[in-house]
């Protein structure tokens, strides 16, 4: 979530609404490369399952994590695979006890 601080996202309040999330995603266009007309669709897909503004903030961080890390990782892995290189992807998860 630290990367969102560097991007200047106002998440210090610990909560987020749908409209602000959509606006922040659009402001991230140079990184996200999601057209303006699709930003509401993307935020609704990630954040639409709750009305809780704290949960929405957490889900927005998930969205941005996928945009910044997940999608580029899969893109590069596919390119390596298509070039014939042995390619592996791993998913690491940590659960606090």
TrEMBL record:
Q: Which SUPFAM superfamilies match?
A: alpha/beta-Hydrolases
The record's listing under InterPro entries reads: AB_hydrolase_fold, CarbesteraseB
Mention one GO molecular function: hydrolase activity
The UniProt record lists the keyword Hydrolase? yes
Q: Where is the signal peptide?
A: none
Record's keyword annotation contains Hydrolase: yes
- The Carboxylesterase type B domain covers 12-94
Q: Which UniProt keywords apply?
A: Hydrolase
Q: What is this protein called?
A: Triacylglycerol hydrolase
The species this protein was found in? Sus scrofa
Gene assigned in the entry: TGH
